[in-house]
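We give this protein:

***
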Amino acid sequence: MASPRVLLITKADCHLCEDARDAVGRVTASLGLEWDEELVDHQPELRERYAEEIPVVLVDGVQRDFWKIDEARLERVLRQAMGQ
């Protein structure tokens, strides 16, 4: 089974984004997964879509969490996506 794609959408100078990076990093590392980050600062379509919700975590293109990342929920979602 393919690994789920984990994408964290952030913006510059965002204290919640720093916390989200740490949370996503811990969860994905514990499962042996990679993750990507995209900044909305230079992407008007992302900034418009997620303006009030940043940081946002997407798993396989589906929004799974925003603002404060719930690590237990993210782990459950990722395990389910991995077929575990």
User: Anything to note?
Assistant: The mean pLDDT is 95. The longest strand covers residues 6-10.
